[in-house]
Design goal:
Layout (H helix, E strand, L loop, with lengths): L1 E4 L10 E4 L9 E11 L1 H8 L17 E9 L10 E5 L8 E5 L3 E3 L6 H21 L6 E5 L4 H12 L3 E5 L5 H7 L2 E3 L5 H8 L6 E4 L4 H9 L6 E3 L3 H7 L10 H12 L7 E6 L3 H8 L7 E5 L1
Parallel strand pairs: 8-9, 8-11, 9-10, 11-12, 13-14
Antiparallel strand pairs: 1-2, 3-4, 3-6, 3-14, 4-5, 5-7
Length: about 300
């Protein structure tokens, strides 16, 4: 198989297209011919030297923990049929033409979901729902979301609105019309952010989801009275000492299938801002590390 992989930690340039052995299919697992894989900051951290908890593999190492494709082979005890179109998740290894995962970690791809959306959906919608579940925004409350125009932010805005909350989203001014189209109240980063948020939320901010870190987390702490209703997706090292939450939960095929179905019915918006080829993975990483841009990047294979 072909894979965008690396043999040493480093910058985007360490990613290159390699020919690697085809993974073996074991019991209760499926071999998927990958059509698309999402690109996210998690992948860049893996490439730069971070090893996800529970991973014990060596080199070459293949980033990517979300994908969509076609079932090409199945192991014993598996109900999936060869040829089924699926989307799913893994710890790593998604930047490849083929991947083997447990059969329970994939779900059927609805016909109305494009490959690039299916391949990049998992991390955003699962992280967003887990985070919003932790924060418990209720009807009449105001939720502040930092990084609201990104993939997780886009999903979190919609989930919180479905639950009756008012959503204020921080983003660059170029993304403010996009946030308004989702139903959020946009606000710009920079000096005076706390005052701008207070002006939009005269009744106070009930909870905050930090997808940016740094100043965004500081502003969240200044606005939310209960630190138990502040969650950071970025500042994991500070969360314990500050008394704020991080996401704690597991991805499930049921949750992923539910959101894929919502997208297929036109009830969930999910933006793919750009796609790259597998051989362009390094270029995709350069873009993701700018920290800017709305929606999600995907590799199309």
């Amino acid at each position: 198989m072909k894979a965008a992989a690396f043999e040493i930690f480093g910058g985007p340039e360490v990613l290159r297209l390699m020919s690697l052995p085809m993974p073996a299919v074991g019991p209760r697992s499926v071999l998927v011919a990958v059509r698309a894989a999402g690109v996210q900051p998690f992948d860049a951290a893996v490439r730069a030297g971070w090893t996800p908890p529970g991973y014990s593999g060596g080199f070459p190492r293949i980033p990517g923990n979300e994908f969509a494709g076609v079932v090409e082979a199945v192991g014993a005890g598996v109900d999936w049929e060869v040829g089924a179109e699926v989307l799913g998740f893994s710890l790593l290894n998604s930047y490849a033409t083929h991947i083997v995962v447990p059969a329970g970690d994939v779900t059927a791809k609805p016909a109305g979901v494009p490959w690039e959306v299916a391949g990049a959906l998992t991390a955003a919608v699962q992280t967003a729902e887990i985070a919003v579940d932790h924060l418990r925004p209720a009807a009449g409350e105001t939720l502040l979301i930092h990084g609201a125009a990104g993939a997780v932010g886009t999903a979190a805005v919609q989930i919180a609105l479905w639950r009756g909350a008012t959503v204020i989203g921080t983003a660059q001014p170029a993304n403010h019309d996009y946030l308004r189209s989702l139903g959020a109240l946009p606000v710009a980063y920079g000096p005076g952010l706390s005052d701008r948020v207070r002006a939009l939320a005269p009744g106070g901010v009930s909870a905050a989801l930090d997808g940016a870190g740094g100043e965004a987390l500081e502003v969240s702490l200044s606005l939310v009275a209960d630190r138990g209703r502040v969650l950071t997706l970025v500042e994991h090292g500070k969360a314990g000492s500050l008394g704020v939450m991080v996401t704690q939960g597991t991805r499930t095929a049921e949750r992923l299938g539910r959101y894929a179905g919502l997208y297929a019915k036109g009830e969930l918006r999910f933006l793919i801002r750009r796609t790259y080829g597998l051989e362009e993975a390094a270029q995709a990483h350069r873009e993701i590390e700018t920290g800017h841009g709305r929606g999600k990047l995907a590799l199309v294979i």
